[in-house]
C-alpha cells in the first residue's frame, strides 16, 4: 500500500461527504424515497469514519492492519449507496446484488478495523 494511501482515503471521504450532502438535498426536495435518505446517511457517516481511519493509518503506520479494512469500508459504502441511489434515480441498478455485497463489505471492514486495533494494541508497548 502506498504511503499516499491515507490521502486517498481522505479524498474518498471528501467525495462521500459531498455526495452525501447532495443526496440529502435530493431526498428532501426531488425524490420521495427513503432509500436516498439512507444512502445519504451512510455516505456522511462513512465519510467521517474514513477521514478518521486515514489519520489512524498514518499515525500508527498501520497500512495493512487499518488501511485494508478502511478500503473495504470505502468499497462497501460505494456499492451499497450507489445501488440505492441508482434504484431511486434511474429506477433500476445494473448490479442487482450490489447493495447486499456492499453491506457485507461494510460489516467485514468494520470487523477488520476492530481486529486491526486489537493487533496494534497488542504490538504497541504501554506508555507511562
- Portion of residues in helices? over 70%
Q: Radius of gyration over alpha carbons? A: 16 Å
Distance between the termini: 32 Å
* Major sheet attributes: none
Q: Count of helical segments?
A: 4
Helix/strand class: mainly alpha
Mean pLDDT: 93
What global shape is seen? elongated
As a percent range, the share of strand residues is under 5%
Order of helices and strands: HHHH
Low-confidence regions: none
Summarize the structure.
By secondary structure, the chain is an all-alpha fold.
Secondary structure layout plus pairing:
Layout (H helix, E strand, L loop, with lengths): L4 H25 L4 H26 L7 H23 L8 H26 L5
List keywords for this structure.
single chain, elongated
Descriptive account of the structure:
- This protein has 128 residues and is mostly helical.
- 78% of the residues lie in helices and 0% in strands.
- It has 4 helices and no strands.
- α2 packs antiparallel against α3 and α3 packs antiparallel against α4.
- The longest helix is centred in the middle third of the chain and has 26 residues.
- The relative contact order is 0.14.
- The mean pLDDT is 93.
Amino acid at each position: 500500500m502506498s504511503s499516499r494511501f491515507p490521502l486517498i482515503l481522505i479524498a474518498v471521504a471528501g467525495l462521500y461527504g459531498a455526495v452525501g450532502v447532495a443526496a440529502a438535498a435530493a431526498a428532501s426536495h426531488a425524490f420521495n424515497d427513503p432509500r436516498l435518505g439512507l444512502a445519504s446517511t451512510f455516505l456522511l457517516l462513512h465519510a467521517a469514519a474514513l477521514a478518521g481511519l486515514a489519520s489512524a493509518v498514518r499515525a500508527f503506520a498501520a497500512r495493512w492492519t487499518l488501511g485494508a479494512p478502511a478500503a473495504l469500508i470505502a468499497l462497501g459504502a460505494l456499492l451499497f449507496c450507489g445501488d440505492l441511489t441508482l434504484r431511486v434515480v434511474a429506477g433500476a441498478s445494473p448490479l442487482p446484488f450490489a447493495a447486499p455485497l456492499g453491506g457485507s463489505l461494510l460489516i467485514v471492514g468494520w470487523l477488520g478495523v476492530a481486529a486491526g486495533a486489537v493487533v496494534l494494541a497488542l504490538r504497541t508497548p504501554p506508555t507511562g
